[in-house]
Automatic annotation (TrEMBL):
The keyword Membrane applies. Keywords: Membrane, Sigma factor, Transcription, Transcription regulation, Transmembrane, Transmembrane helix. Residues 30-95 form the RNA polymerase sigma-70 region domain. SUPFAM superfamilies: Sigma2 domain of RNA polymerase sigma factors (SSF88946), Sigma3 and sigma4 domains of RNA polymerase sigma factors (SSF88659). Pfam families: Sigma70_r2 (PF04542), Sigma70_r4_2 (PF08281). This is RNA polymerase sigma-70 factor. It comes from Wenyingzhuangia gilva. The chain crosses the membrane at residues 183-201. InterPro entries: RNA_pol_sigma-70-like, RNA_pol_sigma-70_dom, RNA_pol_sigma70_bacteroid, RNA_pol_sigma70_r2, RNA_pol_sigma70_r4_t2, RNA_pol_sigma_r2, RNA_pol_sigma_r3/r4-like, WH-like_DNA-bd_sf. Residues 128-179 form the RNA polymerase sigma factor 70 region 4 type domain. Belongs to the sigma-70 factor family. ECF subfamily.
């Protein structure tokens, strides 16, 4: 408790400098200090609590991974708000791209440009993705399926698997990253679009 109280009293710039020197307690303090505020900020723009949580989680993961290279030209709070806003805009842009591809694929099918073997190709694609999901580490696969297939909230997943919300979010993030890395060299742009749609609708 003494250590936590000391970090709680530190100003942002001191915590930031400690973070750059690999201090995990400083990172935890910054996360606890700003995560709720940033999630609420993201939620107001997105209207989806899970997406807002994911964006803030990814932001802080990025900050930790790039901590030694980060340079602040203003306040830390200003940097965090701008970084969150940029991630939100990227998320919205991505969703628009996915929606555009979804419309294109739908039109493609409706206009009879997909031939009789399209169903076979879809089944083959689904089999590839399913196989890659099965290859994920056991705990990561469990969390991923509970979130993306059963659509459970992170809180319920954490309770069901006896882990923290933070760990559940991290596992989903890692699973998506692994799947993208494995599937990217194997699939064409068209198939990658279907993969994104599979993740969204699953």
């Amino acid at each position: 408790m003494k250590t936590q109280s000391i970090y709680h009293k530190h100003a942002d710039d001191i915590l930031f400098n400690l973070l750059k020197n690999d201090d995990q307690l400083a990172y935890t303090e910054l996360f606890e200090r700003y995560s709720v505020i940033l999630v609420n900020h993201a939620y107001k723009m997105l209207g989806d609590r899970d997406d807002a949580n994911d964006i803030v989680q990814e932001l802080f993961l990025s900050i930790w991974n790039k901590r030694r290279d980060l340079i602040l030209t203003g306040s830390l709070s200003s940097y965090l708000y701008k970084a969150t806003k940029n991630k939100i805009l990227n998320h919205i842009a991505h969703e628009k791209v996915v929606a555009r591809y979804a419309d294109s694929i739908s039109n493609f099918i409706e206009n009879d440009y997909v031939f009789a073997d399209s169903k076979i190709r879809e089944e083959e694609l689904h089999a590839i993705i399913t196989k890659e999901i099965d290859l994920l580490p056991d705990k990561m696969r469990q969390v991923f399926l509970l979130k993306k297939v059963e659509e459970l909230p992170y809180e319920e997943i954490a309770h069901k698997l006896n882990i923290t919300d933070k760990t559940a979010k991290q596992q989903v993030y890692n699973a998506l990253k692994k799947l993208r890395e494995r599937l990217h060299p194997l699939l064409s742009v068209f198939i990658m679009c279907l993969f994104v749609l599979f993740i969204i609708i699953s």
